[in-house]
């Protein structure tokens, strides 16, 4: 089926095609392309942006939405398996958007149903719809995805958004800078992925004005408290890097600051008014990227969405 489980399955052509589709939806967000369809949003983990933007996207396309955001209020709290839940919801919905705390849950769900599954985040693994909106945001702000210096900052161990982003960027000759404390470094499997796909990367533990001087994209991330088994360790690293306005004075004019949000403390509030701050527009781009995803998994093409 046409599930979106990982962005690694998208070719360069497919990514550029999805960006073109998102552009169409930004120009004309309110459409009737999904009239008569039902979109289920199953959120086994908390969310603000992903769930609400998928639901808004479905509503703007004329679909109806069912789902839950509190798994304790569902039969999974009585012991129903994920497999049974997915098989049940498949009888009601045309698309299932699912966030789950287990890595691989979206892949598993896609194997037990013929209804398209959209992975809205599976543990520390992948967040492909976030990546589509990140790519769209990078494309809009830089005019290209090619040959960029992309700095990933913060929790590179548990941050699923950075894992997905680096896989998607393999087509575009990026240079990555991984800025993380030792406890939160990019996992070895992703560094192996970079090496086997010819992706250049440099690792740093310092986060300073000098280090980010030639950045095109500064991608800040939250330290993912919910993934720590030892909360004392979280307390030690939680405020490891904080971006402040002063650090941006000598950065490139085209630099844009992205953050998947929510932020906790890693971007000072005074940065919000800096023209290089782009994280709220980035979240808005999520609506258009997700309209494109909902259409694509149902086989609606770019030609169908062009007005
Ligand atoms: N970026 C993101 O996934 O945000 P939410 O957790 O609020 O959905």
UniProtKB/TrEMBL annotation:
Gene Ontology cellular-component annotations: cytosol
Keyword Transferase found: yes
Known catalytic reactions: carbamoyl phosphate + L-aspartate = N-carbamoyl-L-aspartate + phosphate + H(+)
E.C. code: 2.1.3.2
Pathway connected to this protein: Pyrimidine metabolism; UMP biosynthesis via de novo pathway; (S)-dihydroorotate from bicarbonate: step 2/3
Protein name as catalogued: Aspartate carbamoyltransferase
Binding site for carbamoyl phosphate: 49-50, 99, 127, 130, 261-262
PANTHER family: ASPARTATE CARBAMOYLTRANSFERASE (PTHR45753:SF6), ORNITHINE CARBAMOYLTRANSFERASE, MITOCHONDRIAL (PTHR45753)
Transferase found in the keyword field: yes
InterPro entries listed in its UniProt record: Asp/Orn_carbamoyltranf_P-bd (IPR006132), Asp/Orn_carbamoylTrfase (IPR006130), Asp/Orn_carbamoylTrfase_sf (IPR036901), Asp_carbamoyltransf (IPR002082), Asp_carbamoyltransf_Asp/Orn-bd (IPR006131)
Protein family per UniProt: Belongs to the aspartate/ornithine carbamoyltransferase superfamily. ATCase family.
Organism: Bacteroides stercorirosoris
Keywords: Pyrimidine biosynthesis, Transferase
Gene Ontology BP terms: 'de novo' pyrimidine nucleobase biosynthetic process; 'de novo' UMP biosynthetic process; amino acid metabolic process
Residue ranges occupied by any Aspartate/ornithine carbamoyltransferase Asp/Orn-binding domain in the UniProt entry: 147-295
Origin: domain of life: Bacteria
Residue stretches making up the Aspartate/ornithine carbamoyltransferase carbamoyl-P binding domain: 2-139
Function, as annotated: Catalyzes the condensation of carbamoyl phosphate and aspartate to form carbamoyl aspartate and inorganic phosphate, the committed step in the de novo pyrimidine nucleotide biosynthesis pathway.
Assembly and interaction partners: Heterododecamer (2C3:3R2) of six catalytic PyrB chains organized as two trimers (C3), and six regulatory PyrI chains organized as three dimers (R2).
Residues that coordinate or bind L-aspartate: 78, 160, 222
Listed GO MF terms: amino acid binding; aspartate carbamoyltransferase activity
Pfam families, A to Z: OTCace, OTCace_N
HAMAP family: Asp_carb_tr (MF_00001)
